Amino acid sequence: MSDLYKVAIVGSGPAGLSAAARAAALGMSHVLLEKTDHLSDTIFKYQKGKHVMATPSNLVLRSDFDFAAGKRETILGVWDEQAAGQGVNVKMNAEVAEVTGDKGDFQLKLKSGETVRAEAIVLAIGTQGNPNKLRCPGADSPMIQYQLDDPGEYYDEHITVVGSGDAGIENALGLAADDAQRNVVTILNRGDSFARAKKDNVALLEEAERDGRIIVRRETQPAEVKEGELVLDTRDGQETIRCDRIIARTGSQPPRGFVEAMGIEFTGEDRGAFPKLSPVFETTKPGIHVIGALAGYPLIKHCMNQGYDVIEFLGGNLDLKPADEPILAEKFANLPGNHDVDHWLGVYGDNVSILADLSPLQLRELMLDSRCHAYEPGEVIFRRNEPGSSMFAIAQGSVAVEVNPNDPSVTVPIGEGEIFGEVGLISGRRRGATIRAAEPVVALELSRTAALKLIATSPGAARAVTRISIERQLLQMFGSGLTKQDVAPLVDSAKVVDVRAGQVIIEEGAEDKDIFIIRRGSMIVEKNIGGRQVFLSYLPAGSYVGEMAAIDGSKRTATVKAAIKAEVIRLPGEGFVKLLDEHPTLRDTALKEMAKRREINAFIESRKDDFEGAVDMYSETAQFLVDQGLGEATDVLLIDETLCIGCDNCEKACADAHEGLSRLDREAGRTYAHLHVPTSCRHCEHPHCMADCPPNAIHRGPDGEVFIDETCIGCGNCQRNCPYDVIRMDPKPPKKPSFLQWLLFGKGPGPGEASYAWRKKHGDPEEPKQAIKCDMCSGIEGGPACVRACPTGAAIRVSPDKFLTYTKLTEDVE
């Protein structure tokens, strides 16, 4: 029978090494079990030459091993030396196959057949050995690899990196680091921001993108892997690119079966859930502790601190506080009652629904990236139309939402445990209402980055945010005095579905009865007339469709498909009908809307022979406009070529309204028939330009305008992210002489935009560049200058739902 160790530490990553070093320092009987023939397989598997960061910088390192930012090879060398010098008892090639027994006498059976006994176990095995596989056709292709050891081995290849976390970004940077390799490197991000990655890595990636060394594709994911090709699902539809190799860095999951076999429970059934842990890292199986990435806390410095702490706990030092205790104590200092850190962690963890699935370690990490607030009754938390993309969670008390801007007394309550501000988080729009504390309130404010990271890494938080947003969207859309309890059954049965551009969600003639709410993106409605698909209407985000078949049981009367990549909420038809039956006012409203749509369909059927040509022309024009960005626009400048006389008054007026820099290029852009879409901002519902703005200089105004404020640093991210080429980078121009000075004395370049030559001659060559784009003449009396200056009425600004309507079609053909 083998010796009985005080503790067996499984895994020699940063957490396990630190634990073993602390045990050696205390003279504690221990063994460190490593399944490979080298220490710290986690770091060992990093790509060669990788710079390892030591974040967060304000966190004290508590470990008997040294660690500072540096190259992978240097760090591994230091740890090898210190493990030998400090007497760490390491057993290599010792992979644990099974754990039996109980606290005081565990048996760890190794794959070699040997058994190791220990009073306690510290699991520090991480998750890297269990990577998430790609889930698309061709996912078993030999082109795909889930590890990158040495980026320098690859030359003259088209390589696509899938994954926007730190590992994916670092792999992409490594593959593009040497120009002599001549690799074409593309990185895919299914979202529009890099919420999972460290700021320094994101900055390096954006620099590489600016330099043209890496192609960054946002809102894009693999659709199919083919030999030498990769089919992509993009925001505008599918696209195929050349691809010789795919590096998939899509995260990893805990080895759940192995861990659960020990008797350890997880926080939920989701693949991404983590083990339940006590404040001393003990699992639901007494005597077994979990630290490091398996605990949901993967930063190296955190892992090493946990390794130190868990051995101290096992040694009887239960008064030891975590290394981040002083930082959190400072964050909680302004909260009422003079309570300690443990008290407030308990309040937030127990009371806030979106934090319910977080372990104590994950909760502490989230708090480091968030702000804690206390509000007195009546105190304003934020006001309508203020900029802001953070999300709030109520730990104590309740708030009142002022739903009527003309009458602050009309409010809707949001209670303890709930969130608010999620609209600004998701859309980037200004605050939609004023919110005050209804009673003493303790709240958590999550920055946009922290909130997105929480949603991306905690399945429970993602579900909670999704449920709340669905519930509020249903109440906002259907109204009629409905309560949360009224719509609860619908919310329970709702499914959020991603829809690729061009994908059909409702097919004409089908017999399904589901209803769809457009949560993001937009849809177009078509009907088959004479064997041709004819455009009927456009449905922006916030619309719902499909209720006709649900209410009267008829077949689908039209086809609905995504104009761009979209997100919809799918509701079962029977649940919607039951809601209507229970609320007659809502049913009457739905029946009136349904009657209008049936009149449209009947009119088209009766007149299809009379305006066949007009139907084709309008349908093609509508598709052209959708292709030009109206599918996600909120305001578009259109020019009627039959009225335009080419005077360029629109450009000159734009320049005169914006310090001599025009936001409009009339001649550029695309034309179909008589309709021209010049190069001018569309003010997208979900602006791509906002996705990676380091100083958060891009905002949406109260009238929907997307504008860039004076904090712009000229990085150019917005210009690269805009799919419509409507943003340019230009030095801030010198002040132009007035019109009278030009007219009377010949000073300056005259009306309109100053020429580049004039601006270069009179400007400061050291002046940094700034991003220039249309702001809809926000704050200028009379509205957009381009429209006001047009002498013929050729220039108009419209929202897509007003242009792409059946009314326009009937006006053309009647």
Structure characteristics:
single chain; 814 residues; alpha+beta; FAD/NAD(P)-binding domain; Jelly Rolls; 5 domains; seven-stranded mixed β-sheet; five-stranded parallel β-sheet; 25 helices; 31% helix; globular; disordered C terminus; metal ion binding; 4 iron, 4 sulfur cluster binding; transport; Oxidoreductase; 4Fe4S_Fe-S-bd
Write the layout of secondary structure elements.
Blueprint: E1 4-10, H1 14-26, E2 30-33, H2 41-44, E3 51-52, E4 70-71, H3 72-85, E5 90-91, E6 96-102, E7 105-110, E8 115-123, E9 144-145, E10 158-162, H4 166-175, E11 184-189, H5 199-210, E12 214-218, E13 221-226, E14 229-234, E15 237-242, E16 245-248, H6 256-260, E17 288-290, H7 300-314, H8 325-332, H9 341-351, H10 360-368, E18 370-375, E19 380-382, E20 391-396, E21 399-402, E22 411-414, E23 419-420, H11 422-427, E24 434-437, E25 441-446, H12 448-457, H13 459-478, H14 484-493, E26 495-499, E27 504-506, E28 515-520, E29 522-529, E30 532-540, E31 544-545, H15 547-552, E32 559-562, E33 566-571, H16 573-582, H17 584-607, H18 612-630, E34 636-640, H19 649-657, E35 665-672, E36 675-679, E37 698-700, E38 706-708, H20 717-721, E39 728-731, H21 739-745, H22 756-762, E40 769-772, H23 785-789, E41 795-798, H24 800-803, H25 806-813
Parallel strand pairs: 1-2, 1-8, 2-5, 8-17, 9-16, 10-11, 10-16, 11-12
Antiparallel strand pairs: 3-4, 6-7, 7-8, 13-14, 14-15, 18-25, 19-24, 20-23, 20-25, 21-22, 21-24, 26-33, 27-32, 28-31, 28-33, 29-30, 29-32, 34-36, 34-41, 35-36, 37-38, 39-40
Helix pairs in contact: 1-7, 4-5, 12-13, 13-14, 16-17
